[in-house]
Write a structure and sequence with these properties.
Keywords: Membrane, Methylation, Transmembrane, Transmembrane helix. This is Type II secretion system protein. This protein has two helices and two strands. By secondary structure, the protein is mainly alpha-helical. The protein has a two-stranded antiparallel ribbon. The longest helix has 52 residues. The radius of gyration is 24 Å and the shape is elongated.
């Protein structure tokens, strides 16, 4: 009677093939995750900037906080920064000098450190 099973060499070959495939796909997977986070960040910034512009056009002034956009229903909720994982890490910028609109928040940027896949700084978006 012949015993059934795999030899050690067959198992090593199969494990080597699996490791090779994982080594090829893992970097592509993580690169696509980074690109997705960058795209989500661009979208969130565009939505918040649009809400800031609409707020300023409607009220004649900029909001004092980002939470005021939610309170006055210009946003349903403050989006989470996909890079920091927090809705509290947004960096707010005041209106430029010479602007006759009052308020504290005229622009918003990400509080994330590092560079985007295109080489630009997240903080400069």
């Amino acid at each position: 009677m012949k015993s059934r099973g795999f030899t050690l060499i067959e198992l090593i070959v199969v494990m080597a093939i699996v490791a090779l495939l994982a080594g090829i796909t893992a970097p592509r997977y993580f690169a696509s995750v980074d690109r997705a986070k960058a795209n989500t960040l661009r979208s969130s910034l565009a939505i918040m900037r649009d809400a800031l512009d609409k707020y300023a056009a409607d009220k004649g002034r900029y909001p004092d906080t980002l939470a005021q956009l939610v309170q006055d229903r210009y946003l349903r909720q403050l989006p989470e920064d996909p890079l920091t994982g927090s809705a509290q890490s947004w960096v707010t910028l005041p209106p430029p000098a010479g602007t006759d609109l009052a308020g504290q928040v005229a622009d918003v940027r990400s509080g994330a450190a590092g560079r985007a896949p295109d080489g630009s700084l997240y903080a400069d978006w």
